[in-house]
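// run 5 | inverse folding | seed 20
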């Protein structure tokens, strides 16, 4: 599953995921029935909702960087706690494979409640 899919499912089905980690996700792009922003706005009226821990990582040379930056601002406006990082890289396997250790570490931390 890519970054968009991980983000979509985490916010659409909040009770099923403890966290979501997007690497170069095509997040924040509207105009479809799977618009993540619309899902968040619609679900944010539910006072009992518990958003998953959410992490975004995008390369400084990724063509989706501005979308990720805008989505991070949107999440802040919705008072959704998240972590957004950037590092040198593009929308490619080199960037993603160098980011996987962070994803695995976070998965371990969440699973073991560290």
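// decoded
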């Amino acid at each position: 599953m890519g970054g968009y899919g991980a983000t979509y499912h985490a916010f659409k089905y909040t009770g099923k995921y403890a966290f979501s980690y997007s690497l170069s996700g095509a997040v924040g792009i509207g105009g479809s029935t799977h618009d993540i922003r619309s899902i968040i706005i619609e679900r944010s009226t539910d006072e009992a909702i518990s958003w998953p821990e959410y992490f975004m990582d995008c390369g400084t040379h990724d063509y989706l960087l501005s979308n990720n930056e805008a989505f991070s601002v949107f999440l802040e406006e919705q008072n959704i706690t998240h972590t957004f990082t950037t590092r040198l890289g593009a929308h490619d396997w080199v960037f993603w494979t160098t980011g996987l250790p962070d994803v695995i570490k976070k998965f371990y931390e969440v699973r073991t409640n560290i």
